[in-house]
Design a protein that fits this description.
Blueprint lengths: L3 E5 L2 E2 L6 H16 L7 E4 L1 H9 L7 H17 L2 E2 L5 E2 L1 E7 L10 E4 L5 H9 L2 H18 L5 H15 L9 H19 L7 H15 L3 H10 L7 E7 L10 E6 L11 E6 L5 H4 L5 E2 L2 H7 L6 H4 L1 H18 L3 E8 L2 E9 L4 H14 L4 H7 L2 H8 L2 E2 L7 E4 L1 E4 L2 E7 L2 H9 L4 E5 L7 H6 L2 E4 L7 H9 L3 E3 L4 E4 L4 E4 L2 E4 L3 E5 L4 E4 L4 E2 L5 H13 L3 E5 L3 H9 L5 E5 L1 H4 L5 H9 L3 H25 L4 E5 L12 H12 L3 H10 L12 H6 L1 H22 L4 E6 L5 H22 L6 E6 L2 H5 L1 H4 L5 E5 H9 L7 H9 L16 H15 L4 E5 L6 H10 L3 E4 L4 H12 L1
Parallel strand pairs: 4-5, 17-18, 18-19, 19-20, 27-28, 27-34, 28-29, 29-30, 30-31, 31-32, 32-33, 33-34
Antiparallel strand pairs: 1-2, 1-3, 3-8, 6-7, 6-8, 9-10, 9-12, 10-11, 12-13, 14-26, 15-25, 16-20, 17-24, 21-22, 22-23, 24-25
Helix pairs in contact: 4-5, 5-7, 6-7, 14-15, 14-20, 15-20, 16-36, 20-36, 21-24, 23-24, 23-25, 24-28, 28-29, 35-36
Bound molecules: adenosine-5'-diphosphate and magnesium ion (2 copies).
Length: about 900
């Protein structure tokens, strides 16, 4: 097997640039070189090598040595420099690059190949002694941190002291001799901390860095990130070794990062930051404040330092040309890293840029309009889960705001929560159910778990491309970065701003769209759903096969669902209606009655209320199917609590409190979820389902008369295990329907069907379909009963189950396709065999989960039903599943 692929200088081993093999960075370096863009030559060691390295217990195959040597020779041939040559040394960078860009992987090592001898050669060939020694000290500092994993604080401290001793405030004031002296100190530091001298052999340096990249694949940081993002551990990372180019060779040199469109808003305008006379990550490290790329952005921000467009117009024009080429080539918005060495532009990276949901939507729709991609590709490009960000509220513009300070609008959305100062506390308090805002000077990859746990992120330092900003946008967390007005005292856990003090636990609000930071909680408003969102939904609906309904049980929820494009109600639970304060007493009377007569008296009081509930829902959903589930939960959920409530019910029912209490204790169940609930209630107390059926049909006729557009009730019997149960319940519903239609001299179409939420029902679906006119898979209960795990108690161990790979994902979030999924497939098949064309749907949380929706598409269900806010997500996911 070949493990090394070369690029640059007309050599292109990677061919089409397979990112699985070369990693994202390697594939695109290869790709850029292949289309003739200026890329420093280099080579990539494949992800397969990483996998093999772990399989072989951290060893390399014999052949790798020669392959790496030929890679170095390739770079030497093109640059005319020689690795380790004291007269004219070749320097390289060593970079990691997985298939998916992944924070947590080894940081890049720059200037590798410098030692006590080659630094002299670099000074001679560049004619710039200061530059050479600055590069050497950077190299020792980076290598010690990243490869040797020594305490980087010690090196930063030594630099600070050196500046202080010389009376400097900026790194740029350091002279060649100052750097020389610092290099000597750094080398002493390495010997002290590492017990060995800094490696002078350039090949040792190279292999040390290569092994560090492969080693970082199994670092804790990388593992956490993979877990949060569902990236498999087998993928491995590639290593990229590339000739150095220098952005730190004076005023005509620079380094920068850019996006071909605005990653926050999606606006079709170049966007980026750069720094003159700087190297590598200086731009994102927040050491110096970066300058704007374009004149327009600089003017808009009212900033003084010249933009690149103004300071280096020719190189900027060349760069802008490259942006165009890259967007056309990769057909997506690109995130680009570049360096200018003495006026010459070099491309160091390109990848599809991370973006906010808002930007993803705008860019996809714009690119389709521009003809760069098709409408279907636009549909495929937007992550349904990310739409969530757009569907959620933003700050109410009319609400008063106690603005403390303003930072950069790094990731949109608004969030309120309790201040926490470290990632672990964020995680802990989130688990306790608190909303928290993670407040840091700046974030680093060690903070990822805390950023995930937080509702929002606020940093005092860092630009729009800082770690906090990039990661927050990817996660969909609101973020305000670089809020320079904050002073954070981590030790005392105090945040000071504008003469005020805030402590851990105090509530603040951040607005990631404006950068504002506010004291207290600020109310929010609903999002705007027209424009690009509407356009994308139209395109999605064109390719979608699955219908999308909503789980809704109030007129308001139904209206939200309809506004979001729901094509019916897939689950209207009726029990919540029973909890209403005005009627709970009658409900309790019914439950606690010890005779049918007593129950009927109470049910008579409930009938008009329930009829009104359904009439309101049918009005909103006129013309659309509405699946109504008859009473499902164990009755004890409705029992009175405390003396006062018992007395109230006793009075209404004219019975004694003692008698009620006796009845209540009779209703006690050891395992209510498997107890007297669902259709078992209908079997023992048919009058309850009778009342509900009457309410449904009377309401349907009222609405038919009022609006002329008849609703289509689908009466759903819960927790059916046998055909006989459904037969008995259907007989009740049909009888009541016939009675109501006869009384009113009018009728509506309706169906009677069942939930499939018990394994027995799935197995006997063929038989049950003889009676049931539709099935709705109740995947919450079906998951509980199939796996035998209670959803309410699973929280304590499910994370471990996922961590240990027992389940790929939480089966209550995403359908367990292999187990529960097999039951669904089998029930669908058996149901259809009995009743061809039987209507099949899914309700339950899974109806809004894109992976579960893909499964429903594959199984050929007719519809999914999701909570109102997830309806657009489901529409988009259903469209993607159909593509
Ligand atoms: P990351 O994956 O964290 O972005 P990179 O491997 O892209 O890390 O390296 C970070 C930065 O280091 C680059 O953006 C670039 O500025 C600098 N860099 C990497 N390789 C080179 C090189 N060959 N010459 C000059 N600068 C480089
Ligand atoms: Mg990095
Ligand atoms: Mg990079």
């Amino acid at each position: 097997t070949r493990y090394v692929y070369r690029f640059g200088g007309g050599v292109d081993d990677g061919g089409k640039g397979d990112r699985n093999l070369l990693g994202g960075k390697g594939a695109n370096l290869d790709g850029m070189a292949a289309i003739g863009l200026p890329v420093p030559p280099g080579f990539t060691i494949t992800t397969e090598m990483c996998t093999r390295y772990y399989v072989d217990g951290g060893k390399y195959p014999e052949s790798l040595n020669a392959e790496v040597a030929s890679g170095i020779a390739h770079i030497e041939g093109i640059t005319g420099k020689t690795f380790g040559n004291p007269a004219d040394p070749l320097l390289v960078s060593v970079r990691s690059g997985a298939r998916a860009s992944m924070p947590g992987m080894m940081d890049t090592v720059l200037n590798l190949g410098l030692n006590d001898e080659t630094v002299v050669g670099l000074a001679a060939t560049s004619g710039d002694e200061r530059f050479a020694w600055d590069s050497y000290r950077r190299f020792i500092q980076m290598y010690s941190d990243v490869v040797l994993e020594l305490d980087h604080g010690a090196f930063e401290e030594a630099l600070e002291i050196a500046k202080e001793d010389n009376g400097y405030s900026l790194d740029t004031e350091m002279t060649a001799d100052d750097w020389k002296a610092l290099v000597a100190e750094y080398k002493a530091l390495v010997e002290k901390l590492w017990n060995k001298p800094f490696p002078q052999d350039v090949h040792d340096q190279l292999w040390g860095a290569i092994s560090a990249v492969f080693g970082s694949w199994q670092s804790e940081r990388a593992k956490v990130y993979r877990r949060l993002n569902n990236i498999p551990g087998e993928w491995g990372t590639a290593v990229n070794v590339q000739a150095m180019v220098f952005g730190n060779m004076g005023e005509t040199s620079a380094t920068g990062v850019a996006f071909t469109r605005d990653p926050a808003t999606g606006e079709n305008a170049y966007y980026g930051e750069y720094l003159i006379n700087a190297q590598g990550e200086d731009v994102v490290a927040g050491i110096r404040t970066p300058q704007y790329l374009t004149k327009a952005a600089r003017e808009r921000a009212g900033a003084k330092p010249l933009s690149m467009e103004e300071a280096m117009p020719e190189t900027y024009a060349e760069l802008a040309g490259v942006f165009q080429i890259l967007e056309t080539h990769y057909r997506d918005m690109q995130d680009i890293e570049f360096t200018v060495q003495q006026g010459k532009l070099w491309m160091l990276q390109t990848r599809s840029g991370k973006r906010t949901a808002k930007a993803a939507l705008k860019i996809a729709v714009d690119m389709a309009h521009e003809g760069l991609i098709t409408e279907e590709e636009a549909v495929a490009r937007v992550d349904p889960a990310a739409l969530d960000q757009l569907l959620h509220p933003t700050l109410d513009p009319k609400a008063p705001r106690d603005v403390l300070t303003k930072g950069l609008p790094a990731s949109p959305g608004a969030a309120s929560g309790a201040i926490v100062f470290d990632a672990d506390t964020a995680e802990r308090r989130n688990e306790l159910g608190d909303s928290v805002i993670l407040v840091r000077v700046e974030t680093s990859p060690e903070d990822i778990h805390g950023m995930h746990a937080a509702k929002g992120i606020l940093t005092a330092r860092g630009g729009m491309t800082s770690h906090a900003a990039v990661v927050a946008r990817g996660m969909g967390r609101p973020c305000v970065s670089g809020a320079g007005g904050l002073s954070i005292d981590n030790a005392a856990k105090v945040l000071r701003v504008g003469g005020r003090e805030f402590r851990e636990g105090d509530i603040i609000t951040i607005d990631g769209a404006t950068g504002e930071v506010m004291a207290g909680e600020v109310p929010t408003v609903q999002p705007e759903l027209a424009g690009d969102f509407g356009t994308l939904m139209i395109w999605a609906d064109k390719v979608r096969r699955l219908k999308v309904r909503a789980n809704a049980e109030t007129p308001l929820d139904c209206q939200t669902a309809r506004d979001f494009g729901a094509e019916g109600v897939g689950l209207c639970r009726t029990e919540h209606m029973f909890f209403d304060a005005a009627r709970i007493t009658a409900v309790r009377e019914m439950i606690l009655a010890d005779s049918e007569k007593g129950r009927r008296l109470a049910l008579d009081k409930l009938l008009p209320e329930q009829r009104d509930d359904f009439a309101q829902i049918f009005m909103v959903m006129a013309g659309l199917p509405v699946t109504i589930r008859l009473l499902d939960p164990p009755l004890h959920e409705f029992l009175p609590h405390g003396e006062a409530e018992f007395e109230e019910v006793a009075k209404a029912a004219s019975v004694s409190v003692d008698m009620l209490k006796r009845r209540a204790s009779e209703l006690h169940e050891f395992n209510p979820m498997l107890g007297h609930r669902g259709c078992r209630l209908g079997v023992t107390y048919p009058e309850i389902y009778e009342m509900q059926a009457r309410a449904i049909f009377e309401a349907a006729l009222i609405v038919k008369q009022r609006s002329g557009d008849a609703p289509i009730p689908e009466v759903m019997i819960p927790l059916v295990a046998t055909k006989k149960e459904l037969e008995l319940m259907k007989a009740i519903v049909d009888r009541v329907a016939a009675e109501v239609f006869a009384e009113q001299g009018a009728s509506v179409d309706y169906l009677v069907g069942t939930m499939i939420e018990l394994p027995r029902a799935a197995l006997k679906a063929g038989e049950i379909a003889e009676v049931g006119e539709f099935f709705s898979f109740g995947t919450n209960d079906l998951t509980q009963t199939t796996i035998g795990i209670s959803r309410d108690d699973a929280g304590r161990f499910l994370t471990q189950y996922v961590d240990k790979g027992i389940f790929a994902r939480d089966p209550f979030v995403s359908i367990d396709v292999e187990g529960v999924g097999e039951l669904i497939e089998l029930a669908a098949e058996r149901g259809r065999a009995t009743r061809p064309g039987i209507k099949l749907g899914i309700c339950g949380e899974h109806g809004g989960d894109p992976a579960s929706i893909a499964f429903c598409e594959k199984t050929g269900l007719d519809y999914v039903s999701a909570s109102p806010y997830r309806v657009p997500i489901a529409r988009l996911a259903a469209a993607q599943a159909a593509l």
